[in-house]
From TrEMBL:
This is Crotonase/enoyl-CoA hydratase family protein. InterPro entries: ClpP/crotonase-like_dom_sf, Enoyl-CoA_hydra/iso, Enoyl-CoA_hydra_C. Belongs to the enoyl-CoA hydratase/isomerase family. Residues 248-268 have a biased composition (Basic and acidic residues). One of its GO terms (molecular function) is enoyl-CoA hydratase activity. The keyword Nucleotide-binding does not apply. Keywords: Lyase.
Length: 268
């Protein structure tokens, strides 16, 4: 059984973490397949939005499978298949799965079907719109094991949330509920589990109706200017706006409005 399910639904890419019997914990196979999935989303111009979710109704992802990964990385055991060998050969794969090394400017929606602990909470910080089932939980328990959440959380979380909320998750060690995560701003919306799929589809379809170059410029600007000075940030924003205004899509939008029809954006 593949650790990652990758499905193209028209202009949408659906990525499903697929180890429900193991709490969707990330092993070597999942690392490599998730890195490949993100690369396909990045490279395929037909894909306008990605949705990441998980199999089952209890766990989104409860971290990394340290029992498999640490012996592999330390040489205590040999790779058992081609994917584990790729993980050893490419030390950047852990960064790639968290979109640390090379940002992905296409919109990413997370449909969080259960507990997101450790690496699960870290992965969510690489996404844009986050819909959680009402029984979901979030947490970074790494310090309890004597390690740190080093897949992006020590940098990202305090930039994405108010400082005190971020530090409660980073230092507290205890999971927070979906309702608490919503109040903090960690997630965008909380719904009953049976509505999760439909809400993710709603957001994905809405993204696909909009101009892809415009959305990517918006996300790129939000990410790249986060720590810049106001002057540098506004300059970058104008560069992005100018590039979009020169696109065919920028002409198609007003034309469609004038002709009272839905625009046909092509990402050009």
């Amino acid at each position: 059984m593949s650790a990652i399910l990758f499905e193209k639904r028209g202009q949408q890419a659906w990525i499903t973490l697929n180890r429900p019997q193991h709490k969707n914990i990330m092993n070597g196979e999942m690392f490599v397949q998730l890195a490949d999935a993100w690369q396909e989303v990045r490279d395929d111009s037909a894909i306008r939005v990605a949705v990441v979710t998980a199999a089952g109704d209890r766990d989104f992802c409860c971290g990394g499978d340290l029992g498999e990964l640490i012996p592999l990385w330390t040489g205590a055991r040999q790779p058992q298949n081609e994917l584990e060998q790729r993980l050893l050969d490419d030390p950047m794969i852990p960064d790639k799965i968290m979109l640390k090394g090379e940002p992905l400017y296409k919109p990413i929606i997370a449909a969080i079907n259960g507990r997101a602990l450790g690496g699960g909470t870290e992965l969510l910080q690489a996404t844009d719109i986050r819909i959680a089932a009402d029984h979901a939980q979030f947490g970074l328990p790494e310090p309890r094991a004597g390690v740190v959440p080093g897949a992006g959380s020590m940098v990202r979380l305090a930039r994405q949330l108010p400082y005190a909320h971020a530090m409660k998750i980073l230092l507290g060690g205890e999971p927070v509920s979906a309702a608490e995560a919503l109040a903090m701003g960690l997630v965008s919306e909380v719904v009953p589990l049976e509505q999760l799929q439909a809400r993710a589809e709603h957001y994905a379809e809405n993204v696909c109706r909009q101009a892809p170059l415009a959305l990517q410029a918006i996300k790129r600007t939000a990410i790249e200017t986060h720590t810049q000075s106001w002057a540098d940030a506004y300059s970058f924003e104008m560069e992005q706006a100018g590039a979009v205004m020169m696109s065919k899509d920028a002409r198609e939008g007003p034309r469609a409005f004038k002709e009272k029809r839905a625009p046909e954006f092509r990402g050009e």
